[in-house]
Write a structure and sequence with these properties.
This protein has 470 residues and is of the alpha+beta class. It has two domains: 3-217, no CATH class; 233-469, Roll (C8orf32 fold). It has eight helices and 23 strands. It has helices at 116-126, 214-217, 300-304, 317-327, 333-347, 360-366, 371-384, 452-455, and strands spanning 3-14, 17-29, 32-45, 48-61, 66-74, 79-86, 91-98, 101-108, 133-140, 145-161, 164-177, 181-189, 195-202, 205-212, 231-233, 246-253, 268-272, 278-282, 389-401, 404-418, 421-425, 438-444, 461-469. The strands form three sheets. A 14-stranded antiparallel β-sheet has the order 8-7-6-5-4-3-2-1-14-13-12-11-10-9. Strands 15, 19, 20, 21 and 22 form a five-stranded antiparallel β-sheet that branches. Strands 17-18-16-23 form a four-stranded antiparallel β-sheet, with no helix packed on it. The chain is globular.
């Protein structure tokens, strides 16, 4: 057996503070290339410490064909392990393990998608000529999906790597995420195509990974308080916004480079203005009475919102039991979703900000979490009884939170499909629930990657004006 390997260490910075480290390794063993990246970050939310640890491994042939992958995610409550193998026919056999339970499913490998070694070989083939542009389809083991990427080769620059100045090539990558527009990151690579520094935008901040000595990378971290990054000031105090008929929000990018991609829903419409601004109009849609469940329609998008996922385990016995307890004997979908909203509001006992992100099954067991945990549990319970549901992330108006007044804070809630409309539910704020005080920034199935739609927008705009229609 022959083994060729290398390991590099990175310090993770934002706002001038070191918040974690990353370890990148690549090993070639008997015709297989194994690439692994481990990332560990520690932050604080309203003085509650949050740890986020991930490991992604891709296994490929030496010519870049996918053989398998593994992902381990630990966001502060429990650990989820996802592994997959790709056979010669392109079928992926995937296993998800969490809380001692294992789920298996299959899907077809996205045509033309590459992982780490495939991308490295493509980069070698294309070269590093200034001005070169090309596209690639990147398979994300963490998101178990392919993401379209546009790659632009820039000039050589002298880059400071923590006091060590090195001439590196700048590479810009635009990830085209569904319903989230483009997320642009920059990397600086050496002649062997090894990344020495990367910069990615998150909530108005720049997350930097810089190659360094192992001792410094694994050394002590600073404390970064995220609460301020999750809030946007209201231009004025807003009274009785929950009972408003509708609310118009005038949003303006905070820089010329920012581009706002705001989704339209049954509860929210978006009007484009000049210079990148938008008007978002939010009104609560009432659920039609007399609609029975489970949903029996054929809309593919709605049907997708009934399927169990690794974070919305609506087929798990404990989720089904909770859903049946909440719904009781009602056959009316509108009544059922309101009962689920109220049930989840009472069921989660510890409203803790210390959980990074948990699945519905983890929340059902721990009864701990914040708005994202309320959302995944409520959505999973809706799906368990045959009511389509999806996760929405965005902003909600709060009069006061953690010493801050009249702000819009980062938030997550649920939309359930009743009749022919998506109805807003917010178990975190029950009994008030969803209101025109909510602004949606991203919609998804509960996967952490879905929140990129929010973090790529939040922090890059201000609310200039709010008009309330009573």
């Amino acid at each position: 057996m022959s083994v060729l390997g290398e390991t590099e260490y990175f310090a993770v910075f934002t706002e001038g503070k070191k918040i974690g480290h990353a370890i990148h390794s690549r090993a070639v063993t008997d015709g297989k290339v194994t690439t692994t990246e481990k990332v560990s970050m520690q932050v604080s939310r309203a003085d509650a410490p949050v740890s986020m640890n991930t490991m992604e491994t891709s296994i490929e042939t030496t010519d870049g064909k996918p053989l398998g992958f593994e992902v381990v995610q630990d966001f502060g409550l429990m650990t989820m392990n996802v592994s997959g193998t790709v056979n010669e026919q392109g079928t992926v056999n995937m296993t998800v393990t969490s809380m001692g339970r294992t789920q298996k499913n299959t899907f077809e490998w996205p045509n033309g998608a590459v992982m780490a070694e495939g991308l490295r070989l493509l980069s070698l083939k294309k070269g590093l000529k200034d001005g070169l542009e090309y596209s690639a389809k990147l398979f994300s083991p963490g998101g178990t999906r392919a993401i379209e990427a546009e790659i632009h080769i820039g000039p050589k620059r002298n880059i400071d790597l923590l006091g060590r100045v090195v001439t590196l090539t700048e590479v810009g990558t635009t990830l085209k995420l569904q319903r989230a527009g483009g997320i642009v990151s920059r990397s600086y690579i050496d002649g062997d195509l090894r990344i020495q520094k990367s910069i990615a935008p998150v909530m108005g901040m720049q997350i930097e990974m810089i190659a360094c000595a192992k001792e410094f990378a694994l050394g002590e971290n600073d404390v970064l308080e995220l609460v301020d990054k999750m809030f946007i000031a209201s231009p004025e105090p807003l009274e009785n916004i929950e009972s408003a008929k509708s609310v118009n929000y005038h949003l303006r990018p905070t820089s010329q480079a920012a581009s706002l991609t705001i989704p339209s829903t049954d509860n929210q419409s978006v009007q484009q203005l000049g210079e990148g601004g938008v008007i978002v109009t939010v009104r609560s849609v009432a659920a039609s009475a007399g609609v029975e469940f489970p949903y029996k329609g054929r809309d593919s998008g709605v049907l997708e919102a009934m399927e169990p996922t690794r974070f919305l385990q609506s087929d798990r016995r404990e989720i089904i039991e909770l859903a049946n307890r909440a719904v009781g004997d009602t056959k009316d979908a509108a009544e059922a979703v309101k009962r689920i909203e109220a049930f989840v509001s009472e069921y989660i006992e510890d409203r803790s900000l210390s959980v990074g992100y948990a699945s519905a099954a983890e929340v059902a067991a721990s009864r701990v979490g914040d708005c994202s945990e309320f959302a995944v549990l409520a959505a999973s319970m809706c799906r368990a009884v045959g009511i389509p549901a999806r996760i929405v992330s965005g902003l909600v108006y709060v009069e006061s939170f953690a010493g801050r007044d009249n702000m819009f804070g980062g938030h997550a809630w649920v939309e359930a499909y009743v009749g022919d409309k998506w109805i807003g539910l917010d178990a975190t704020r029950s009994p008030k629930g969803f209101s025109p005080g909510h602004i949606a920034l991203a919609i998804g199935n509960g996967e952490p990657v879905d929140f990129f739609g929010m973090v790529s927008t939040l922090g890059y705009f201000k609310i200039e004006k709010v008009i309330i229609e009573e």
